[in-house]
Amino acid sequence: MDQWTRVRRCAPAAVAALLALTSCTTSANGEANGRATAASGTPGAPGVHDPYFPELGNGGYDVTHYALTLDYDPKAHRLEATAEITARATQDLSAFNLDLHGMNVTSATVDGQKAVVSRAGDELTLTPRSGAGPTDGETFRTVVGYSGRPATITDADESEEGWLRTADGALALGEPLGSMAWFPGNHHPSDKASYDITVTVPKGLRAISNGELRSERTRGDRTAFAWHSGEPMAGYLATVAIGKFETRATRTPSGLPVFTAVDPAVAKGSAESIAGIPDIVEWGIKTFGPYPFSSAGAIVERDGDAGYALETQTKPVFPGPPSDGLLVHELAHQWFGNSVTPKSWRDMWLNEGFATYAQWLWDEDFANIPADRNFAEAFDNKANWAFPPAEPPSGADLFGDPVYGRGAMVLHKVREAVGDDAFFGIVRGWASTHRHSNASTDDFTAYVEKKSGKDLKALWDTWLYGKKKPATSR
Ligand code: TRP
Ligand code: ZN
Prior knowledge:
Elements lengths: L1 H8 L4 H6 L3 H4 L15 E2 L17 E13 L4 E12 L3 E7 L4 E7 L2 E2 L1 E5 L2 E5 L11 E10 L3 E3 L5 E7 L2 E5 L19 E10 L3 E4 L2 E8 L2 E12 L6 E4 L2 E6 L5 E6 L4 H8 L2 H12 L7 E5 L16 E2 L5 H9 L7 E3 L5 H19 L4 H10 L20 H18 L1 H14 L3 E3 L1 H12 L4 H8 L10
Parallel strand pairs: 1-4, 2-13, 19-20, 20-21, 22-23
Antiparallel strand pairs: 2-3, 3-9, 4-8, 5-6, 5-9, 7-8, 10-11, 11-12, 12-17, 13-16, 14-17, 15-16, 18-19
Bound molecules: tryptophan and zinc ion (ZN).
The site of zinc ion has 6 residues, from helix 7.
């Protein structure tokens, strides 16, 4: 297949390219296919200047698709894998980086040709042979072979992500940067892509991932599970769960496929709440607008396997039987966070404020608790005033109370300011305007002001950016 990429790049040399793949890259710089090609270009940037993780992500290209082929042996805790990354260059590239933490890189090609591999910290640099780097606008394919024992990463707030070993297998969690522990990629949330994730595990175990199951094949004593995610996904939302699972495929009342995978140890305890997923999704559709992905579901691990829930795309992970509130929270993230994704990690409150406010809306609709009461409780909670939600002081604060509680308070203040009709129009409009894309806090405040026709500067100053708790909640 790599020949065809070559042929496209060097059309007049098609025959030569088929006979000898190197022929066109060794030809003179500049005129290989009648259009000027860069002699060498420049290296892509090693990061995209995220305020909290400046080295996360990489410049010079946009990934459009990841095809990950993973083979995992839980007993040996060994992963053997290939990542095939399709990307479009946004500059002439003499070299480019991928984010990868640990693992041994055993091979790397760019458009079928061996690239020079170098590593420094979590940066993997691939240098195509001289003159063979991707040119601006060109789609190119990178294949990286790697193996080893994937790492569990402990974050500044002490939470664990990356590759976690579980009682009977493993679980991959990636917020904010743990995905680099199990595949090389552009791991900043601003570069979303579609995914095919195929995982081979010992027969008897199952491998669950995002999207829809395309095939399940047993050969000898190994079973391969192929999962497909057609809609854009940020790397931090990719997951793999390996172990014994009770799986169930059903549909919501409106026909959306729902796939759940539950650790048998917690199957009884979670049966009732898990059965509520289709109705929660339908409620989400009524409240937030069309569901953004081709399927929904959940992965439920046994207590102790994971330290927290995560809104992994289409199938959020739960660290044990979930409460309705937690289900609502993680399912609401499918619209807010997964479809409308933060431009940088500073915009985290757009994820957690919306997901928390979704719980308040659910309480209003089903628990007879007006959002006013949840707001008043959040207002009185000192922890929510530690810092302004739009400006977490450090990466350790991304999951801090203000991001959740005060983030939700911001939305409640918007609702008070514009009224219910305009507010729910704004919520649905926000989800549809930035569907499958990225958005920032500035995008949000500008959108609300435009839609409502109101100048809300005082509201933002107090609730979003204010360092101090206001004297009254009005
Ligand atoms: N983003 C997750 C949620 O709100 C929670 C989460 C992920 C988390 N990583 C964390 C919470 C680390 C505390 C610490 O659904
Ligand atoms: Zn959340």
